[in-house]
Amino acid sequence: MPVKKALIIGAGIAGIATAIRLAVKGYRVDVFEGNSHPGGKLSEFEQEDFRFDAGPSLFTMPQYVDELFILAGKNPADFFNYQQLDVVCRYFYEDGTILSAYADEEQFAAEVNQQTGEAVSSVKEYLKNSANIYSITNHVFLERSLHRLKTYLHWDTLRSVFRFPQIDASRTMHKANQLFFKDKRLTQLYDRYATYNGSNPYTAPATLNVIPHLEQHYGAYFPEGGMYNIVSSLVKLAESLGVVFHYNSPVEEIVLEKQSAKAVKVKGELISADVIVSNMDVWFTYHRLLKQHPHLFPKKILRQERSSSALIFYWGINKQFAQLNLHNIFFSNDYQAEFDHIWQQKNIYRDPTVYLNISSKYKPDDAPKGCENWFAMINVPSNTGQNWDSLISIARQNIITKLSRILGEDINGLILSESILDPRSIESRTASYQGSLYGTSSNSQFAAFLRHANRSSSIKNLYFCGGSVHPGGGIPLCLLSAKIVSDWIA
């Protein structure tokens, strides 16, 4: 019996994981990537004497990476290692409050009580609710396709359906969080988790309050070698299984034959396969690679509201700050105004919440001695034609002013080098429509059911993985999309 062949479009984290899973199942796999390197948004670069992880900087649920090595019959620790963070994040508020989010639940609850006066019981009750939502949604929303009858024939799925009212989909994250906490600082802290999938806590369903459980219960980690080591380790694993990566090889077209995906066109050459999996943003998959077949487009899905994007400044800083950690958040004083600007006005609020990642805290050689590599990010709207040059200039000054005020130091005078990533460059470098980081937003109670499926309903042998399709964006969900695709293909 001839070996079946699979082609993967895009070497993002989900494309790499899909390649591994299909290779384990006996497929001959080729991955075509338009860039000169794998990883998609999860990339790295060097700037003078500083190294930066360019994209995702939070690593949770490492078991999904380990699982890929185990599937291949290898010991994960021989290839990929990581350490758990004692402090997941450090939060800075405009009123001077500094809150350390300890990984240990008891320690975190005590810290919250000491710094804000919020009852320990409130924190524990909130995390218990988050865990409950996870227990209901995990098998239905995360690990299986919502678009297969087989999913709903599992007993654990039926149990989850009966418990559906408990996932709190009828009210917003913000309204739910307000009822859990008396202190507005805690409400703001947990509202922030909407940004983990590019959504708005004032409109997104409280079901998204599942996210804190993933971070608090399963922990946050730092990979040895930095975030990009996730990519490089998995690429080595894939290559050891016979997967072939073709870089600087953008796919030009998916070739159909009687509504069945039969081949891809790369540099004018047709390459046939039994299965084609697109890790490219689903919008671009249709509009670039299937533009000859608009009658097959899922038009309603492609018109859905996109997730938010990001504006990132990569700064080489000529100082070390003892009060900062790997992950740091500097909150806006008016969170609702910030989200109104992002979602209604489609611009950037004058006082944005700033996320600051400093990998040199755990990997000292990412910066010269006495220096730090700052990944300073704010949430911004997707690209719909704004004057980004003007917005970036104003935002840069507002970010520097904010950090300088809270840290008591003139940050501008410490910047040795700078690079910028904005929605336009995110779109051009990673084929993410409008520069949105997570495909469509989750700003409605039915959003989880409305994401594009992991298989085309109109084109046979065409599958999808990555952050623009089910179950969503972020490293863990992208890895789960690969699992769903490989199970479906099998």
UniProtKB/TrEMBL annotation:
InterPro entries membership: Amino_oxidase (IPR002937), Carotenoid/retinoid_OxRdtase (IPR014105), FAD/NAD-bd_sf (IPR036188), hydcarot_desat_CrtD (IPR054840)
Gene3D superfamilies with a match to the protein in the record: FAD/NAD(P)-binding domain (3.50.50.60)
MF-aspect GO terms: oxidoreductase activity
GO BP: carotenoid biosynthetic process
Domain Amine oxidase: 13-487
Keywords, comma-separated and alphabetical: Carotenoid biosynthesis, Oxidoreductase
Keyword match Oxidoreductase: yes
Pfam families: Amino_oxidase
Pathway(s) the chain acts in: Carotenoid biosynthesis
Family of this protein: Belongs to the carotenoid/retinoid oxidoreductase family.
Designated name of the protein: Phytoene desaturase
Species per Swiss-Prot/TrEMBL record: Mucilaginibacter lappiensis
